[in-house]
Amino acid sequence: MNRAARRVVSLTVGRWTFAIGLLLVLLAAWPLGAQECLACHSDATMTDANGHSLFVDGQKFGSSIHGGLKCNDCHAGIKGYPHPDKMAPVACKNCHADEAEALKTSVHADGREHPCTSCHGDAHAIYPKTDPRSAVYPLNVPKTCGQCHGVNGMAGKHGLPSVYPNYMDSIHGFALSQEGLLVAANCQSCHGSHHILSHNDPQSSTYKMNVPATCGACHAKIETDFEAGAHGHAIAKGNGKAPVCTDCHTAHTIVQPTESKFRMQSTPICGNCHKDKFSTYRDTFHSQLGFLGGYVETARCWDCHRAHDVRPTSDPDSPVNPAHLIATCGQCHAGANASFVKYDPHANAHDRKRNPGLYYVRLFMNLLLVSVLTFFLLHTILWIIRSRLRQLKNRAAKGENHD
């Protein structure tokens, strides 16, 4: 081979060597696609030095919401193969900035205890919330939250109650799990998803003053009625002692209001605040039927006062306003008339101003009872003394006769 030919060959080899070297450099820096990574990570037995599985199900990943991404879109530390053994944690906030910002001030802000995958599931099999396979699909939300807020969940570590079983037994849990109603309230409906705050935080959707609006997102008509009533007016004025939805229905153990269980406990619930009215109600025939006779259909507080649009007697729209009493009582007592509704369902024998006749009758009966008991007590004591003296006298007489 002459010099010219050798020179051509040398240049050709040099160019190919340079091209191959450049290609190798570019390939090392080129983002790795799923297929390249799955060449190793599709092995179900693959683990790291600590025994943690490094297996990735390629089929699930491909159908997930991240299926179109390259592996080092999330695992930014991977620049080529081979990659370092220890990888930096995936920063979901790089793509999900809004969600990460919302989490900063939430009760789940601690990323070590509450990583994104604790709610969204397997990092390589995350599906849209509209997909039934998603951990945050409405039907799956209670179970997802229940992993921490269940009997043996992380909530116990922080002294929080186990609410998952209570929710599942509630009307909301039954509608979701048994009836499959996606519109039924789940954890996210009331607490939110990322910006979840303590119920003591005024910005929280479960803060007492915000509860009516939170429940009203589904129960719009009831919220309107509540706001029109005395309780709603009190809340609007900032009265934190006034009851809201959760005071009567609880937060998680919510039962159907028409069930006997709720009806039987509804009056004591009202009595938690209205102690004086509850006390006088217990003296009535309605109460005796319910508490002693176990009769479910007897009149309870909300049968007369309504459940949500509760108004004072002086309000013309109140069902217990004198103008409406015949209609109100007539719901149960057919033929109720003006004479019938003179009955006082909260008569108080201790209130002389409200019920003077009953007050003096009670006073007279108490005096009569005390007088009679005192008389018979004195009579009995005197009788005992007389009997004892007679016994002593008889013994003395027998002793004299014996002598």
Structural account:
- Helices cover 47% and strands 0% of the residues.
- It contains 20 helices and no strands.
- The protein is elongated, with a radius of gyration of 39 Å.
- The longest helix has 47 residues.
- About 2% of the residues have low confidence.
- Among the domains are: 94 residues, no CATH class; 73 residues, no CATH class; 50 residues.
- The chain is mostly helical.
Strand content: under 5%
End-to-end gap: 172 Å
Count of alpha and pi helical runs = 20
- Residue share in helix: 40-55%
Dominant shape: elongated
- CA radius of gyration is 39 Å
Low-confidence stretches: 22-31
Summarize the biggest pleated sheet. none
Mean pLDDT: 87
Counting DSSP E segments of at least 2 residues, the number of strands comes to 0
**H/E topology pattern:** HHHHHHHHHHHHHHHHHHHH
Counting helices, strands and paired strands, the structural category is: mainly alpha
